[in-house]
Amino acid sequence: MTRFAILLLPAFVSLPASAADLDRPPIRYSTAPDRNPVSALRESIQSGQRLAHDREFGHLKAVLKALDVPASSQTLVFSRTSLQRSRIGPKTPRAIYFNDEVTVGFCRHGDVLELAAADPNLGTVFYTMDQDPKKKGAIERQTENCLICHGSSGNQGFPGHLIRSVSPGRSGDPVLSLGTKRVDHSTPFEDRWGGWFVTGTSGKQDHLGNQMVGGWPGLDEKAPNANVVDLKPYFTVANYLTPHSDLVALMVLEHQGEAHNRIARANLLTRLALHEQDELNKALKEPAGTRSEGITRRIHWACEPLVQYLLFHEEAKLTEPVAGTSDFAKEFAARGPFDANKRSLREFDLKTRMFRYPLSYTIYSKLFDGLHPEAKERVYLRLWEVLSGKDESKEFAHLTAADRKAIREILHATKPGLPDYWKP
User: For residues 320-339, b (16+ Cβ closer than 10 Å) or e, as one string?
Assistant: First the structure.
């Protein structure tokens, strides 16, 4: 076992921020109304909606159905790095399910389901759903409990997804002396997924999944950890909705987590900067709308990391094809949207990089659509400058002329609300 492993539940920024800062105007993170799929489900339950419950999974199946989260997205983490850590271990991994807007965490015999939702106004918002059938699926919004990790310096003070690579011991506890690493699509393949089970093939590309410090009890010391397609030797797979912890689902999850973080930071930093300008104008008795160059620069600085990430800047290259074991990739790609030539930003490559067309599908998300208008205007302008070939700086040298043309055409055909200058 080498160095690292991963933790879920989720750069460059212009401003430091803390949870206390975000609880003041204009954000008011802990008290501002939430508007997202989980808050909508909470309101439905409070209005009398009943969720099915069973002994094995509690409300899990009903929640996935209500939130349109596919079971094929299941990934399994056995490092003890979440709210219900006492329920997690190599024989009882935590299951993670996700779609574009919501992440659901399930522990066997856990007290709660853990949910995180992309909220257009607040970024990532955290919840728990009580698994006691007597509580009828009561959902509680969480702040302090979750923000200890998810709003810490590891996320630059902003609530968000936190995905790490750690070294798990035989109990599942991370061996912190061996180090940890933050993971997104830029992380080298060989440093990913320690502390997770991983089902899929990757050729000669090794990774850290399916390993623990000191070796796996009952397994041959020389048993490969990569190219594992059956998890039955490790734990009782029948205790979970599917027998998979799909490699491609893991790749998408770690990309999406950081994409959501950067969208949220760009939004919140823009709102903070403009609020500061408004307060300064009032104090100096300047006309409303007066803008300093410094505030404009801060907005630009807040948006540039998002632009780079959406365009897969520094994406770690694949040296051989990879594949998962579930229907996740097929189902994910089928969601589109598609242009007239049946092209989509969800189309996978999985030979040299993750997606065939390297612009993140998260641009279709409600989280992106909820960007402050000034932030969205800046992001659209920068994307156009890159995709039109006006900006050929080194950060975007990985994009070929064909890539830029195809992405531009797909986006024009499938993304409502683009500025007029995007028209062919």
Answer: eebbbbbbbbeebbeeeebb
